[in-house]
């Protein structure tokens, strides 16, 4: 009540939260809702695709998802930690050969090979990450480049284990009778399950304290160390995690292809993976997906355009994409979605 007996309808300042405190959480929740809605739609389309596409196109989509899993690991290292790696294909090859040797020499059931291949690549990532801590920039890129270069001769050297230049041929996982699925459909859903789990793991990691530490190392290593973050520890972990996802992708690659040879993992493959990530979009959640599609389809398109010089066409396509979308295809899609949303809101406003 006021002094004149009139009820005081004004509220205390603390009863009116600042606009920023009320609108920011709502905006954040709206972004999260839209993100989850997009993921749900994408999963529905992914589950529908193998029943409508020809077996060869289903096979291509499976490979695109495998490359997306490998690029998830590379994105952790390059996009979220700020390190450079030109040898990511080597970890992919480690996972592939670990799986092939287990299935060919020891007749190991294929589901068991996935955690083993990921673990072997993880340990190798730690082993290579520790000595690389003293390096950065171009020097680190040269070290990872050397790994990709000597891998192929090394695999050919141990012919009794790796099959040498001839490689190893393996039986693909057969679909259980109760599923009623064809072989290509069964393999597609195996790859889809691995891809979905990988994305959930990476999303949880980036939302945790570890993800914030990786971003701190990427943005300013000295400032991160001052605030209590150990750059050496998290850079090593980034190498290990990146290698682990690449190893898992190499394992699933063997399930789908049924064959492995050293010439499948040359330096060109590692560079193509890095180019795919940059074109897809560094540091974003959709960058690895778009990068996987790029790695799968663009070399094929380049081959169809000019069989004599597909590398030239491939390079020109990369230049064109980066000119039109400096932040990658994910940034281009984001800008297009923002523009469409702005136009839709403007249309509703004009209608009223």
Characterise the protein shown here.
The protein is mostly helical and 352 residues long. It is 74% helix and 1% strand. It contains 14 helices and two strands. The protein has a two-stranded antiparallel sheet with strand order 1-2. The longest helix is centred in the N-terminal third of the chain and has 34 residues. The two termini are 42 Å apart. The N terminus is likely disordered.
Q: Whole-number radius of gyration? A: 24 Å
Structural category is mainly alpha
Strand order in space, largest sheet: 1-2
| Helix and strand run | HHHHHHEHHHHEHHHH
Indicate the percent of residues in helices.
over 70%
Low-pLDDT runs of 5+ residues are 1-7, 9-17, 19-23
Could you tell me the strand content as a percent range?
under 5%
Distance between the termini: 42 Å
Mean pLDDT figure: 81
Biggest sheet overview = 2 strands, antiparallel
Q: What is the assembly state of the chains in this entry?
A: single chain
Extended strand count: 2
Shape: globular
User: Counting H and I runs of at least 4 residues, what is the number of helices?
Assistant: 14
Layout of helices and strands:
Layout lengths: L18 H34 L2 H24 L9 H18 L4 H20 L8 H20 L1 H4 L5 E2 L13 H24 L2 H11 L1 H6 L4 H27 L1 E2 L6 H14 L6 H19 L4 H15 L3 H24 L1
Antiparallel strand pairs: 1-2
Defining key terms:
352 residues, mainly alpha, two-stranded antiparallel sheet, 14 helices, 2 strands, disordered N terminus
